[in-house]
Design brief:
Number of helices: 4
Structural class: alpha+beta
Strand content: 15-25%
Shape: elongated
Order of helices and strands: EEEEEEEEEEEHHHH
Strand order of the largest sheet: 2-1-11-10-7-8
């Protein structure tokens, strides 16, 4: 069990939000305090994180870190990735997850852990000068489409205009449909002939 220090002897701890709605905010830990979503019930309110309870967690500075105690929060408290159900110890450099907010414990003289956004991502690129030719890359996407082929049918009107021939008549759609209509009749005659032949040979 870590020994609680007198306020004058406590290390100068700071919690920095490294992920979440208020990234970059630094919360000093001069003594015991409660973090939550409701400023009327917590010493430090993170009102932009809707997953926090009104009174979410209590923190108490110690000689080698911070004592963390979950206050029966709805979504739990996590110390270095593990959910806690009893008071736990958070060492310097460790992380505390509350809702969607990640806080890192630092000493007061420590540097920020938040990485600045590169300037190239926060500024607009200048438009090309008037009259200049913009070079754009062209991406060639392979295609499975077949090349256009000649039709394998002849329209009846074209056949009549040219006089017709026996080779072209077989390609006409109207003749194909006619043969399809006669196919059931031929099949029926074949079945009748087979039945008569069978009865005659018995």
């Amino acid at each position: 069990m870590n020994r609680m220090l007198e306020p004058s002897a406590m290390a100068d701890y700071v919690l920095e939000i490294v992920e979440g709605p208020e990234t970059g905010r630094r919360i000093p830990l001069p003594g015991e305090l409660v973090i939550g979503r409701d400023p009327e019930h917590a010493d430090v309110a993170l009102m932009q994180d809707e997953l926090l309870s009104r009174r979410h967690v209590m923190l108490a500075p110690q000689d080698d870190g911070v004592r963390v105690e979950d206050l029966d929060s709805l979504n739990g408290t996590f110390v270095d990735g593990d959910q806690i159900f009893t008071p736990a110890h958070l060492a310097t450099g460790g992380q505390l997850l509350l809702g969607v907010t990640v806080l890192e414990l630092q000493t007061g003289t420590g540097m920020t852990s938040v990485r600045a956004i590169p300037k190239s991502l926060t500024t607009f690129r200048p438009l090309p000068a008037e009259g200049s030719v913009a070079v754009t890359a062209q991406r060639r996407v392979p295609t499975l489409a077949r090349t256009e082929s000649e039709p394998d049918y002849v329209a009846p009107l074209a056949l009549r205009e040219t006089g017709g021939s026996a080779d072209l008549l077989a390609l006409l759609d109207e003749h194909t449909k006619g043969r399809a209509r006669h196919a059931p009749i031929g099949l029926f005659v074949l079945v009748v002939f087979a039945v008569v032949l069978y009865l005659a040979l018995r």
